[in-house]
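Q: Joint fold for the lines below.
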Amino acid sequence: MPERTPRKDAARNRAAVLAAADTLFTRCEHPDDVTMADIAAAAGVGKGTLFRAFGDRTGLIRALYETRLEPVRENVEQGPPPLGPATPPLQRVLALLDAVLCFKLDNRHLALALEQTGSDSPYRTEHYERWHAVLRGLLDRIPGLSGTGVTDFTAHALLAATRADLVAYLTTEKGLPRDEIRAGLAEFAARTLGADTTPGPVAEG
Amino acid sequence: MPERTPRKDAARNRAAVLAAADTLFTRCEHPDDVTMADIAAAAGVGKGTLFRAFGDRTGLIRALYETRLEPVRENVEQGPPPLGPATPPLQRVLALLDAVLCFKLDNRHLALALEQTGSDSPYRTEHYERWHAVLRGLLDRIPGLSGTGVTDFTAHALLAATRADLVAYLTTEKGLPRDEIRAGLAEFAARTLGADTTPGPVAEG
DNA sequence: GGAGAAGCGGACCGCGGGTCCGTATCGTAC
DNA sequence: GTACGATACGGACCCGCGGTCCGCTTCTCC
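A: Joint structure:
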């Protein structure tokens, strides 16, 4: 439990690996194209180092994902409206979903890599539990939804609409432009929340 | 294009492999536990036969999935209400979603295996396109939704709420009972469709 | 600067998907 | 029934990837 501080070279290498993995996942066509050996080589590091630092492939991807996600998390937890806590529930739900969607659009390959890490459910992650808890809490505060006991499922369902492979499919296969997907999600969410449909343009976070 | 009929032993082996794979996937804890060699052994067949018949692992899983799904498809396309075509759109959407959900509950491991076939998007399948097309067609006929141009996304989003890994997570990790999930999905769907919430009990198909 | 802990790296391993080809079986023509 | 080409069989084999191991290097602390 003393949580001793890591050695200098270890910290440097860890950062190098994350950076290398980031660029590799960004450039690649499909997450499987990026092997652990590739990442090690790109980081100028041995494979052992990489596994020592992150445990396994899933651990590395998770760490990278969390790192990238950090700014969004911060914005949600203590940022200004419309993402921050001062926003009224309904608008904040919409803002949050849009933020998650945009994140997945911007980090398509990384999110894909994370979600399709075969042996490990994408739902068993810290950040998913976090999003779900926040979303559920907001839904409970929306009139007409609270107390029905289905806010839990609703939160899951809304997040499911931002799944990385769905996003990848809509953009890559179907060629849908970014804003069309955002508008689709926004209207879908608004509808399930009982808000009237106001499809006005959305500002980028 | 002549599509010559397969040899008798080939047909027999194909059936044996499908049957073996079915029981193995049903029994297993996680889809990855079932290897191609396992399936071949259980079917009393060489690995070569298996790959000759189905191309690759994905092909085998897809074939098995489609086979299992066939009755549901038939019911939707030409069965009696509430799944069949005679049902008014809104109710039929609900019935269809419930049918898909029940299918995934009943074939959890198989659906999981299919959806997490790494290198191949679960959206690029015949049956997904089919469900989506049907659903979208129904949504277009529901007053208050048609013409908005978002029925396409809505159909995707509704189907996303039935994703196999979400279902697996809710049942296995969260321990939610079957009917609670069905009720959750039903209410969620009803809400997005603008129907008032009538959480009455649902009959099993 | 010396000792010991912490970290490094890349040869190595096991396993699983996919291939290959000599052999067995089937369908058909006679 | 038999002979023969086409088709399918099967399991030894290959390859690539995630993950491990251990002799060597580098850091840290006194």
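Q: Anything notable?
A: Residues 7-10, 35-37, 47-48, 51, 56-57 of chain A lie near DNA strand D (CB under 10 Å from a C1'). The two ends of chain A are 38 Å apart (CA to CA).
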